[in-house]
Design brief:
homodimer, about 210 residues, alpha/beta, 9-stranded mixed sheet, 11 strands, globular, binds NADP nicotinamide-adenine-dinucleotide phosphate, RibDG_C (chains A, B), 5-amino-6-(5-phosphoribosylamino)uracil reductase activity (chains A, B)
Chain lengths: ~210, ~210
């Protein structure tokens, strides 16, 4: 069975998945790189092969078993990206996805084939419709929900997320886009575990309780 | 030196320190007792003497070295409490404070002496003024900031909190009073540690970096 999974999504202690104001020069606004420093410290990030502690154990789940990604327009671009016909995302010619990527946007455009197996498809629709398209492209494998916060929130609210790995980073952003908004009662649908890492972050996992 | 300390303050994963709607029958609104079940599981709560794991280690810090408490009117009462001249708090004749307690309120009334060393004083003023009064009454010991969320937030914003122990409970309340609001950048003033407990909660401590 193909699952919908979230991996390595970082929020501040006060629950923001990105800072203010997002721009081309500062995709995370005033958060800068602070939400991801824990990841830069992993052996995985440094390309050091297997091994490592709890941060590595989690970060390495990002790719295996994934056949497609869904991301929001806010992750793909920056405010105004759709006015640039040449914009191909933040990740250079060989993006780290290596699968079809469904970019949810009201500004659709023709698909873009990149190096390394990544193809960006631009899609408008309900979360359920977009998931159906990504799942068909995933060839029986799982679909990763890549963020940002708005996208994850919408899919969780629609009951479409099977697994969610959130990384709580001990910084206080105060403003930006909140992940935890309007999710009252979702703890009834998931087994939730938390584990603090020596790096200072806390990994929180939501695993859907299947019936 | 007398410090200002917060202990055992529980918030949901999405950052709410109490639910909606607060009332006499439901002081925590729709949160019910879910924010405090971790505490009811401790040996300390059950009166079992010393021992226990990480939850016990934290919960036992609540009383030692404390000479006075400050609490908000929302913790002391319920919406409308000030219309009841007989209201003496939620804790019966012998409240678990055993020190002077400064209740911040715009509806001040004469002090009430309870059994066991607790005296409720009703006080209106700035956080700094109220802390000064409590500190004078604490006889050189520390002042505990008892909550709720509004009170803690206001004192943190005013730079008056030296130590803060927050317990993140894996429930999603969705509404209530947020603790994490307008606290951008306070991580620069504190050493922050997180540790997850087998009970499922995560203890987060803020210890002021003294200069
Ligand atoms: N914390 C992390 O680990 C992490 C991970 C990934 C990204 N991020 C950051 O998160 C930020 C982006 O997050 P965000 O919450 O602002 O935005 P987002 O979730 O990436 O994207 C939201 C946007 O996607 C489009 N969209 C959403 N649902 C749609 C639908 N059903 N149909 C068509 N279009 C739809 C809309 O854009 P349009 O109407 O403009 O098309 C909407 O404004 C960026 O700063 C990014 O760097 C953080
Ligand atoms: N999560 C936990 O561990 C925990 C711990 C303790 C309590 N609680 C819960 O938290 C809730 C109360 O929290 P809350 O945030 O709603 O309220 P609160 O912080 O207890 O009290 C806020 C109220 O105190 C008064 N006040 C605040 N600052 C003042 C000042 N400078 N001068 C004079 N009066 C001032 C105002 O009331 P008036 O204007 O009406 O006087 C204000 O509305 C309750 O449900 C309680 O059970 C939770």
């Amino acid at each position: 069975m193909s699952l919908t999974r979230v991996h390595n999504f970082a929020v501040s202690l006060d629950g923001f998945g990105t800072g203010d104001v997002q721009s081309l020069a500062a995709p995370f606004g005033h958060a800068g790189e602070r939400l991801h420093e824990w990841m830069f410290g992993t052996r995985w990030w440094k390309g050091a092969g297997s091994g490592g502690g709890v941060d590595d154990a989690f970060v390495r789940q990002h790719d295996p078993g994934i056949g497609a990604e869904i991301m929001g327009a806010g992750k793909y671009g920056f405010p105004g990206w759709h006015e640039d016909p040449e914009w191909k995302g933040h990740w250079g010619p060989n993006p780290p996805f290596h699968t079809p990527v469904y970019v949810m946007t009201h500004h659709t455009r023709p698909s873009i084939e990149m190096e390394g197996g990544t193809t960006f498809h631009f899609i408008d629709g309900t979360p359920a419709e977009i998931l159906e398209a990504a799942r068909a492209a995933a060839g029986g494998e799982d679909v990763r929900l890549g963020g940002g916060a708005t996208t994850i929130r919408d899919f969780v609210k629609a009951g479409l997320v099977d697994y969610m790995h959130i990384v709580v980073v001990p910084i206080m952003l105060g403003r930006g886009v909140r992940l935890w908004d309007g999710l009252e009662g979702i703890d009834a649908d998931y087994a939730i575990e938390s584990i603090s890492a020596p790096s200072g972050v806390t990994h929180v996992t939501f695993t859907r309780a299947k019936d």
